[in-house]
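Structure ticket #2291
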Amino acid sequence: MAESALLYPGSPNHFHVDPARLFDRPALLEIELGAGKGEFIIERAATTPERNFIAIELATPVVRMLALRVAQSGLANLKVVQADARTIVNLLLPNRCVEVFHIYFPDPWPKERHAKHRLFTPYLVGNLGRTLSRDGMAYFASDVRDYADAAYEMFRLSGFRDSTLPVPGAHRSNFGRKYVAEGREVFAGAFLPPEMGGAKTDSYPQAERDLLTKVSSFES
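Resolution: structure written out below.
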């Protein structure tokens, strides 16, 4: 199999994302999951030039607009990846390679038949802990209180610790600005990774079932 610009052989039978090879220089890495049209991540990369950034987005029409905006920005420290964020985080990122995750206003997919589309599960949160550096941070925001409460519980069950730092994208992303302008409440939290930097991805199957039940009970 030929190497792509994103995937590199980690062993004869497995490939992984190597963030260091995506950029021309070593630097701390920030990743936005579900970057949308890039309002937040482009501004963040422009004002933090000493860091590298990856914007992950799945929807093709949105990715095209995002990629165009990034190209027009001329930012060498920001790359766009079209992928399911769950695949990148759960399977492809190496341990402790990310300094910051930004996760703003993911779709809660409230109906049970849409459960497979939900971004947040305890397994994903555990892998956020696995891939974050020891001094890293995960930032989260949602306009749905129940979804935010479920996400916070997943962070804590996975060993994350609450932080009092402000959440940079809560009011700076596209949806954040929209909801603030509409007077809607935004629920945001910052979380430090587990103290040992590890992921508790196999320690709470019942907790995962309970939390997924909670998320599936959201009203449309």
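Closing remark: The chain has one domain: 10-216.
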